Amino acid sequence: MEFVHTPVLLNEVIEGLNIKKKGRFVDCTIGGGGHSSFILSKVGKEGHLYGFDRDENAIEACQKRFKGMENLTLFKANFHDAPEILKENEIFDLDGVLIDLGVSSHQIDTAERGFSFLHDGRLDMRMDKSQSLSAFEVVNNYPKEKLVKILYNYGEENNAKNIVNKICQAREIKPIETTLELKNVVESAFPKKVIFGKGGVTKQTFQAIRIEVNGELDGLEETLYQLFFLLKKGGRLAVISFHSLEDRIVKNVFKDLSTDCVCPPKTPICICGHRKKGNVVTRKPITASAEELQKNSRSAPAKLRIIERL
């Protein structure tokens, strides 16, 4: 399947990054190159874009899409590794960095990638297909207590215990091998009226397992700090998140970077030495417009936050 992905909040991202000619930018999750194509058109031939993605299909798609463009450098790597790779290549003083934390349409719509309960395929969910841990291993081999914790913490699933009980019962008979099998097991933990009423009781479970498989929250906070300090004065870091766990981390990091003294209120003079390093450009997260929602319903949960370095 061709790697196709509709970039969310495209106009808002391009405007928010404040892109100038000859600028140096990083797209930490380049995907199909949707955001990147516009960034490249703005920076011109004298600018440069550094693109990262752990999905080899994404890298191959961008190599094909941007073939011959000398102002693009691609790295097959997790965005968590981007700061170190940039430093190793002496790439500093960036004008802007973009991180889109969402799953690409290509990954969701390709059944054999095993991301979606809407398409039957082997349980996988690996963004990097070279890694060993997959959704199959998590669902079939993780201890009961660990599965409950993952569903509760990463999926914010209040029915986690019942769902995991059903998973454990099913895997004692035979391994749960496909997304449809997992979907049916999860739904069996809910009354039918709830299933039809909510429309998608499996969504939170699939989200939790995907986060565990790909370590999506591991080191996110530290990565945001490191990328921020690779910006030049006036450079901007833009982050698109798709669920509350990610957004909370982004919000707290931005708050810390944009706050002066953090001493207790009754402290007569500042003793913490904490000084703000940036200004938050988006006081409230930017969400998709009605027009975008009509064209791309998957943009509904997206939240864009931007911070500028002082």
How would you describe this structure to a colleague?
With 310 residues, the chain is of the alpha/beta class. Helix content is 41%, strand content 14%. It has helices at residues 10-16, 34-43, 56-65, 82-88, 105-109, 135-141, 144-154, 160-173, 179-187, 192-198, 203-214, 220-228, 244-257, 290-295, and strands at residues 24-27, 48-53, 72-76, 94-100, 231-241, 278-280, 303-309. A seven-stranded mixed β-sheet has the order 3-2-1-4-5-7-6, with helices on both faces. Helix 3 links the parallel strand 2 and strand 3. The longest helix has 14 residues, at 160-173. The radius of gyration is 21 Å and the shape is globular.
Short description:
The chain is an alpha/beta fold.
- Determine Rg (CA atoms, Å): 21 Å
**How many strands, what sense, and barrel or not for the largest sheet?**
7 strands, mixed
Query: What is the overall silhouette?
Result: globular
Distance between the termini: 44 Å
Measured as a percent range, the helix fraction is 40-55%
| Count of distinct strands | 7
Which regions are unreliable across 5 or more consecutive residues at pLDDT < 50? none
Number of helical regions: 14
- Largest sheet, spatial ordering of strands: 3-2-1-4-5-7-6
